[in-house]
Amino acid sequence: MSQAHDLKLGWIDSHAHLDALEFDGDRDDVREQARRVGVHHCILPAVERANFLRVQSLARQWGDSYALGIHPLYTLGAQESDLQVLDQTLTQNAHDPCLVALGEVGLDGFVAGLDWSRQLYFYEQQLLLANKHALPKILHVRRSSDALLKGLKRTGGLGGIAHAFNGSLVQARHFVELGFCLGFGGAVTYERALHLRRLLVELPLTHIVLETDSPDIPPQWLYVKASERALGAKPARNSPLELPRIAQLVAEIKGVSLEELSWQSCQNVARVLPRLVLAAI
After folding, report:
1. What's this model's pTM, rounded to 2 decimal places?
2. Contact, 104 vs 71, CB < 8 A?
3. Whole-number Å distance between alpha carbons of 18 and 55
4. What phi and psi values does residue 55 have, to the nearest 5 degrees?
5. Which among 4, 26, 34, 198 could bridge 248 via Cys, Cβ 3.0 to 4.6 Å?
6. Distance from the Cα of residue 45 to its chain's centroid
7. Tell me, what DSSP letter sits at residue 16?
8. Which residues neighbour 237 within 8 Å (Cβ) at sequence distance 6 or greater?
9. CB neighbours (10 Å) of residue 193?
10. pLDDT in tens, 104-150
11. Residue 3 in 3-state DSSP?
């Protein structure tokens, strides 16, 4: 099998928060290093109104893509006016080739202290905006698959990417039926991630995209144990540099070549995010 850093291979990191504070010291260097190992394109999703301009600027600077939306973890502090600004910004950038989706949006049933009804309101309002602007969605899916699917079936519209998917095979198939691909990244590298690995085996390669969720969800080789963090070790910072190694493991689990995974995963991203110009990557 070819090595994951073979420069003939090309990868798309379909979910990377490179605007995050963790990259303030070396952001441009990280992006350039990732390009050198074959990560030719990154998609940068916004999480709140305050970073709309930031992800736009970075995507344009690097020749990457971005998405605009309000993340469910940020809904507690979000205002009705943020939805209005999102609508206006999508209108103003309707012809921007770097804008490829509405996101990161969705629902989170894991983090304590969130207002579920408020999450639902912002999710449903953003689904309507996605339809208004003919954009696919990049979804945050954490213990929320059924509620997300309910909203999608009610509103219709384009599909997109169900990021960091960890639901059941039945739920996965429902997302696929609605035009979504499923994002796999660092979580699948853990030996105990048996459920995720079974999903990878069961799902057709045509429904899988790769991601890092940088700087979060570090792969197993970067993980810092809680006991080590208690002694002062810093949590690991994930980055697009890890995507080729993640891809190598995904290829092994799927029983396909790296060349096939590279080609098909890029085709998948372009299919569900049709504004992305694959020929330019």
Report:
1. 0.95
2. yes
3. 8
4. -70, -35
5. 4
6. 7
7. B
8. 22, 23, 214, 215, 218, 222
9. 18
10. 999 999 999 999 999 999 999 999 999 999 999 999 999 999 999 99
11. coil
